Amino acid sequence: MRIIQIGPPGSGKATQAKRIEEKLNIPHISSGDMLREAVANETPLGKEAKLYMTKGALVPDNLVIEMIVERIAQPDAREGFLLDGFPRTLPQSKALDKALLATNVKIDYVLLIQVPDENIIERNTGRRIDLKTGKIYHVKFDPPPAEIASRVIQRDDDLEETVKYRLEKYRADTEPLIPYYEEQDLARKVSGVGSLEEVKGKLFKILGVS
Ligand code: AMP
Predict the structure, then answer these.
(1) What CA–CA distance (Å, rounded) separates 122 from 10?
(2) Is there a catalytic annotation at residue 155?
(3) H-type helices in the chain, by residue range?
């Protein structure tokens, strides 16, 4: 199954993606994770992407498109994949369609996780990441255990001003993708408000798994 997951920053996308990945045994391809890895490894792509990411701005389409098109051509993605964080702009959607057409495959579902702005701000600014395991915590909803608390960090792009900017960018750049996928009858809207289990249940139902 080939799935795209779209949702504002902090909608729980990454958490749900991990669950879908395990359930369907397809790779979870996160453009944000791939870019952060490139930044950490100081690759040419990483060095350029960093200039945009620290401001919460989008990395230019051509760089991200090339990265993802190469990734979905890998053997582990042949039977399916879950794209998380990509596409984020209409040119990215169109470039993805073109790449898929060339290999004669199609997207099965576009999952749209919807969360109001006020919930997004609270969720993002409270988010903390354990540098050692990559596990994500939240200061209010899922506080890290005492032995881990000293090593969790807040990502630069989870600072309040940056979150607000990213949200504006999401509404302006990414929401236009919704009618694009609705026209193709691929879009499935799910409210991202509620417990992670509830949201997971709704997503699994759409995908026909339990
Ligand atoms: P994320 O982890 O998905 O929130 O992504 C973190 C950051 O990586 C974003 O704020 C952007 O700077 C960059 N990024 C991730 N995916 C994309 C994309 N599809 N297009 C452009 N920039 C992206």
Answers:
(1) 9
(2) yes
(3) 13-24, 31-40, 44-53, 61-72, 90-102, 117-125, 146-149, 160-169, 177-183, 196-207
Residue 93 alpha carbon to ligand 1 centre in Å: 14
- State pLDDT tens for residues 13-71: 888 999 999 999 999 999 999 999 999 999 999 999 999 998 878 999 999 999 999 99
Longest dimension (CA), the chain: 51
Question: Which protein residues are within 6 Å of ligand 1, measured from CB?
Answer: 9, 31-32, 35, 52-53, 56-59, 64, 85-86, 88, 92, 157, 166
**Whole-structure pTM value:** 0.87
In the predicted structure, residue 156 carries a pLDDT above the cut 90: no
Tell me which residue of 67, 88, 108, 83 sits closest to 16, measured CA to CA. 83
Q: Is 71 a catalytic residue?
A: no
Which of 19, 23, 155, 164 is catalytic? The answer is 155
d(CA 59, CA 64): 7
pLDDT for the residue numbered 36 = 95
